[in-house]
Design brief:
Radius of gyration: 29 Å
CATH superfamily of the largest domain: P-loop containing nucleotide triphosphate hydrolases
Number of helices: 13
CATH architecture of the largest domain: 3-Layer(aba) Sandwich
Distance between the termini: 62 Å
Helix content: 25-40%
CATH topology of the largest domain: Rossmann fold
């Protein structure tokens, strides 16, 4: 019987997960040298362009160990960015062990710690691997000290490797088969399998990726999803080998896929348990934690005729990305759309880009906001994430906004710049630790609304790319919140409204007005762009009109003739302003979201 090992590779961003996965695939001989390319498991163009992993991907690697035993290694490659930790938690639920990568030059960073705790929660075997030992700046002794001091793991167990050159890859494979436990092959009990991913294939319907815990499954059987009791006839089961590789049968411990002609996307839920219809399991597997979105934004189709296509695209997209939450929404300016919840600003960007590329949707997104709480004078407590639902200021007793605890890891030379950046964003309650000489860890409590806007970009800028940060939501705290309206020619534009702290309102309002001035085309009349809190205007820019030179034919003579013509033109423009409507181009909505500060 072939031995099975299920493992995942986890690490901070850019510590070499995808490169190590490439080397393991090459070692297993799954791909010929001429077909090889970097980031083999990253299927999407957007992943290859940005050099990041967004979706966790699965591949089965055959391996023959030094003692001659045959193994099948199920590798689940995972993302490193904080916005995709939900992908990582789903991958970990299907494993018995993880390779925890540490960069030999950067050491232990914020997400390394987060993934360590996630692996411990799932009670997995942790194999530390020090990667990038070929770099001139590699400091292996320092990395070992951090593994012992910060992670509490034995540094002598750490494997040294370079995923780039292939050095130490054989030792990594040996450690997987020696240290990571066998999943246990209970084929006698009823089938229990956990759905950890799915995607939609235009020709075959929904492709379900799952991990078998007990029992076995083969073509021709009838399966049942335990969450909704939907039954389907299995057409094909198989393993992932850089493509779909059909097999006759999968059994306990295996990771694979199944096709059952599932046409309706709503039948499949990530975290659901699959069992057999004729011999069902008694109870479902625990599944995954309910995901809590932190950033909210509305999505609208550019043309209102495209709304049905957007509905269809979001259904198929949600199947592949279970962390996206959405509900219907309407706007006066933009028509019908959806209010969506995201795990962070990068997640929002990726969703927008994937909808445009993979599903050919032309969409507009509104200003991102977070979920605020309001305590009203009549004793009611309401939660608001959409500026359109902002309560009447006369009824508000107090307002609260979510705070996060951020952990920033930086070289100590950037401490002053980072402190200034955080204090500008209403951060408080700071403390510092020096995990190793030359590196400093700073903790701050900061409003989530300040983090989601452009904090990460600014942190990367001021630390020249060396800063890394992680955050966790801690509590709601009292805050002075206002609704910021944007008026164009006296008309409020609901898609540009936002909820902000009173101190930041003028700054944010002026920035939006300046952006709109650059984007809205000039008209024959003057256009005022204003930012307002209630009836108080706090910022304004003006787009000057086109003007015909009406005095061109008056040469010499009395000045009163020119004045008369100019007065006549002024009255005409005033009348035009009363009836004129300003069309806001779609690019204006997009440009407001961009935060290209110097």
């Amino acid at each position: 019987m072939v031995q099975i090992r299920n493992f995942s590779i986890v690490a901070h961003i850019d510590h070499g997960k995808s490169t190590l996965a490439d080397r393991l695939i090459q070692h297993a001989g799954l791909i010929q040298e001429r077909d090889f390319r970097n980031q083999l498991l990253d299927d999407m163009d957007i992943e290859r362009e940005r050099g990041i992993t967004i979706k966790s991907n699965t591949v089965t690697l055959p391996y023959k160990s030094k003692d001659g035993m045959e193994y099948e290694l199920n590798l689940i490659d995972t993302p490193g960015h904080v916005d995709f930790t939900y992908e990582v938690s789903r991958a970990l639920a299907s494993c018995e062990g993880v390779l925890l990568l540490v960069d030999a030059s950067q050491g232990v960073e914020a997400q390394t710690m987060a993934h360590l705790y996630a692996a411990m929660e799932h009670d997995l075997t942790i194999v530390p691997v020090i990667n990038k030992i070929d770099l001139p700046s590699a400091d292996i002794e320092n990395a070992k000290r951090q593994i012992e001091h910060d992670l509490g793991l034995d540094p002598e167990d750490a494997i040294l490797c370079s995923a780039k050159t292939g050095e130490g890859v054989e030792e990594v494979l040996e450690a997987i088969v020696q240290r990571i436990p066998d999943p246990g092959q209970d084929t006698e009990s009823p089938l229990k399998a956990l759905v950890f991913d799915a995607h939609y294939d235009t020709f075959r319907g929904t492709v379900v990726a799952f991990r078998l815990f007990t029992g076995s499954v083969q073509k021709g059987q009838t399966l049942r999803f335990m969450s909704n009791d939907a039954t389907h006839h299995i057409e094909e089961v198989g393993r992932f080998r850089l493509g779909r590789d059909p097999v006759k049968k999968l059994q306990a411990g295996d990771v694979g896929y199944l096709l059952a002609g599932i046409k309706t996307v709503s039948d499949v839920h990530i975290g659901d348990t699959i069992t057999l219809d004729d011999r069902p399991a008694d109870e479902a597997l625990p599944g995954f934690k309910e995901i809590k979105p932190v950033v909210f934004s509305s999505i609208y189709p550019i043309s209102s005729d495209d709304f049905p296509a957007l509905v269809d695209a979001l259904e198929k997209y949600e199947l592949n990305d279970a962390s996206l939450v959405y509900e219907k929404d309407t706007s006066v300016a933009l028509g019908q759309g959806f209010r969506c919840g995201f795990l962070g600003l990068l997640h929002l960007e990726i969703v927008q880009e994937r909808l445009e590329r993979e599903f050919n949707q032309s969409i507009i997104m509104t200003m991102p906001s977070v979920r605020y709480r309001f305590n009203l004078k009549d004793g009611q407590h309401i939660v608001v994430d959409n500026p359109a639902e902002f309560p009447d200021p006369m009824l508000i007793e107090s307002a609260e906004e979510p705070y996060v605890r951020i952990t920033i890891m930086i070289p100590d030379r950037y401490m002053g710049a980072v402190m200034q950046l955080c204090l500008d964003r209403r951060a408080d309650n700071s403390n510092f630790t020096y995990p190793v000489p030359g590196r400093i860890e700073i903790n701050f409590d900061m409003p989530l609304s300040e983090v989601i806007f452009d904090f990460y970009d600014r942190l990367k800028s001021v630390t020249q790319g060396y800063g890394s940060f992680d955050y966790e939501i801690i509590a709601y705290r009292q805050s002075d919140l206002v609704k910021l309206d944007i008026l164009v020619n006296g008309e409020p534009v609901d898609a540009l409204a936002s909820m902000v702290h009173r101190e930041r309102a003028r700054d944010r309002g002026l920035r939006v007005c300046t952006r709109l001035k650059d984007e809205i085309p000039r008209q024959m009349f003057k256009i005022a762009i204003q930012a307002a809190i209630g009836r108080t205007i706090i910022a304004r820019t003006t787009i000057s009109p086109y003007r015909k030179d009406v005095t061109a034919k008056c040469y010499g003579g009395d000045i009163s003739r020119k004045r008369k013509l100019l007065e006549k033109q002024k009255k005409g423009k005033k009348r035009m302003k009363m009836v004129g409507k300003v069309e806001i181009p779609q690019s204006a909505f997009v440009s407001v979201l961009k935060t290209n500060q110097e």
